[in-house]
Every structure is written in C-alpha cells, then in structure tokens.
C-alpha cells in the first residue's frame, strides 16, 4: 500500500510571537532555544514587536511629550515621525540582527512594505496619529513563511494616502494572529504573566480579566495585551499566553476550554 504524504495540502501551524519593547534590550538564550524548538516542532513563526522604551527615550531627547490612555499612546504630529523612525529605523533592524545572529532567517517589515498593514485613523481627535488595522496582507506573510523566512513586523500602519500611523504592538500582534489563522499567540513581555496582588496567575479567563481591569489590578501596558488576547480568543484561537522571554507566564483560555 502506498501512503501519500503531502505538506502542500496540510495547513501549516503558525504562531505569532510579539516581543514587547521591554524585552528587546536583551533577549536571553532561553528565548532563542525555545524559538528554535518551536520551529523544529513544525511551527511557522511570525514576529511582531513594540518598542515603547526606545520611543520614550527618543521623544524625551527631542522634547516631545506624550500621554497614554489605557496603554495606547496619544500620538501628536511631532511624535509620529519619531515613533516611525525609532521603530522602523532602529528597533526593527536591531531585532532582525539579533535573530540573524542566532541563525534565524529573519526579514524586517513595517505596515508600508507590500501594503502589509493597511490602516486608518483610530480616532484622530482622541488619539492623534494612531491607527487601526483594516487589512493585513496575509499573502505576503504566507509567501515568506513558506520559504522559512521569519517576518519581523514593526507596529507602524499605513493609510491609503501613505500616512504612517502608530499602532500598539499588542494590537498588531492580535490582528496578525487573527488574519493568518495562527494556532497560538505569545505576548512576550518583562513580567512572567498577569500578576494579581503579588501572585502570578497561571491561567485566566475572560471573566476574571474583566474583573481585574475593573478592580484596577490590570492597568497600563497590560491592558492592550489582555484586550488583544480576548479578541483573539473570541475569534476562535484556543489560547493566548502572556510570558517573559523564557516563555513562562499566564495562559488565557477561551470559555470552551475552561469548562
Ligand atoms: N496585573 C498585571 N500584571 C503584570 N503586569 C502588569 C499588570 N498590570 C499592569 N502591568 C504592567 O504591564 C507591564 C507590561 O506592559 P508593557 O510595559 O507595555 O510591556 P511591553 O513593552 O512588553 O508591551 C508590566 O511591566 C507591568 O508594569
Ligand atoms: C499606539 C501605541 O500605543 N503605540 C505604541 C507602539 C510601541 C509598542 O506597543 O511598544 P511596547 O510593545 O513596548 O508596548 C507606543 O507608541 O508605545
């Protein structure tokens, strides 16, 4: 009997890994070895990244102030240029270099490249030059991962008119995970998951997360993470993890899995 085995007809397993700006200034060895293990297990990986601390430093240097609403940076006309040049010009190539150095075949992209992140203003009056994603060019990402190239996406969106917009890195990660039908989303940050009253949580549900936000136990930069996580879970991706760079942390589960 002949057994036919074809990789062409099986859907590839995909993971989106988001690297928070807080982790980019020194990813540890465990990160790279875990990354390679995932690749060996047959996962195609797409990386997205933030760069909050680098943006803060650059804004400060140039005397531009900014505020945040629930973890989203209100981005003025002065700020958007600095955000774009920091993410696309510095943070992205720095990360691509680190990956390539670790023998991971990485290529840097932002929302302009191949119309990767077609975006529009989220709400110009409230947030200024902040975007929300209308469409992700999944064909481009699929073509790259099929050739074993790891796309490394910085969180800059582009309008049809060519205006750059700042998008929170966690939001980009969630949207990309949804668009490519990822099996899993890992949000890598500087804490080993969600901490409530001093205790790291191994698991969380939508109900608990909403309660923790209302009680103020989840705040600031953790808010776009859990909101992105819930959006992704509600769209059918079974689990999202908020982890440190050793990939240890909280798994947020969909209702179906908790039952
Ligand atoms: N309940 C919580 N558990 C853990 N961290 C929290 C929580 N609420 C808010 N945070 C904050 O969120 C931060 C992570 O978000 P952020 O600084 O935006 O990271 P990143 O740059 O990785 O996106 C943590 O360092 C912590 O200060
Ligand atoms: C709109 C918005 O909030 N944009 C973020 C983009 C960078 C980011 O998300 O960086 P982290 O992953 O380090 O948090 C910002 O300006 O900080």
UniProtKB/TrEMBL annotation:
The record marks 18, 225 as: Transition state stabilizer. Substrate binds at residues 51-52, 73, 166. It catalyses: N-acetyl-L-glutamate + ATP = N-acetyl-L-glutamyl 5-phosphate + ADP. Its main location: cytoplasm. GO terms for biological process: L-arginine biosynthetic process via ornithine. Its EC number is 2.7.2.8. One of its GO terms (molecular function) is ATP binding. The keyword Ribonucleoprotein does not apply. Residues 13-244 form the Aspartate/glutamate/uridylate kinase domain. One of its GO terms (cellular component) is cytoplasm. It is found in: Cytoplasm. InterPro entries: AceGlu_kinase-like_sf, AcgluKinase_fam, ArgB, Asp/Glu/Uridylate_kinase, Glu/AcGlu_kinase. The keyword Amino-acid biosynthesis applies. Pathway: Amino-acid biosynthesis; L-arginine biosynthesis; N(2)-acetyl-L-ornithine from L-glutamate: step 2/4. It holds the Pfam family AA_kinase. Catalyzes the ATP-dependent phosphorylation of N-acetyl-L-glutamate. Belongs to the acetylglutamate kinase family. ArgB subfamily. PANTHER family: N-ACETYLGLUTAMATE SYNTHASE, N-ACETYLGLUTAMATE SYNTHASE, MITOCHONDRIAL. This is Acetylglutamate kinase.
């Amino acid at each position: 009997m002949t057994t036919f085995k074809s990789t062409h007809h099986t859907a590839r397993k995909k993971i989106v890994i988001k690297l928070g700006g807080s982790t980019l200034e020194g990813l540890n060895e465990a990160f790279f070895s875990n990354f390679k293990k995932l690749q060996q297990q047959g996962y195609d990986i797409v990386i997205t990244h933030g760069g909050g601390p680098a943006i803060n430093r650059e804004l400060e240097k140039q005397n531009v102030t900014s505020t945040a609403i629930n973890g989203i940076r209100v981005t003025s006309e002065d700020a958007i240029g600095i955000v774009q040049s920091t993410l696309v010009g510095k943070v992205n190539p720095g990360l691509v270099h680190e990956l390539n150095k670790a023998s991971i075949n990485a290529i840097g992209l932002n929302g302009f490249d191949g119309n990767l992140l077609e975006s529009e203003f989220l709400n110009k009056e409230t947030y200024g030059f902040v975007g929300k994603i209308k469409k992700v060019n999944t064909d481009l990402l699929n073509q790259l991962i099929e050739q074993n190239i790891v796309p490394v996406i910085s969180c800059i969106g582009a309008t049809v008119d060519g205006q750059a917009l700042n998008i929170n890195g966690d939001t980009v990660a969630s949207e990309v995970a949804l668009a490519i039908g990822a099996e899993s989303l890992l949000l890598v940050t500087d804490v080993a998951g969600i901490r409530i009253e001093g205790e790291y949580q191994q698991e969380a549900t939508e109900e608990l997360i909403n309660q923790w936000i209302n009680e103020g136990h989840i705040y600031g930069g953790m808010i776009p993470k859990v909101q992105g996580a819930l959006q992704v879970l509600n769209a059918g991706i079974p689990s999202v993890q908020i982890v440190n760079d050793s990939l240890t942390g909280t798994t947020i589960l969909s209702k179906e899995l908790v039952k």
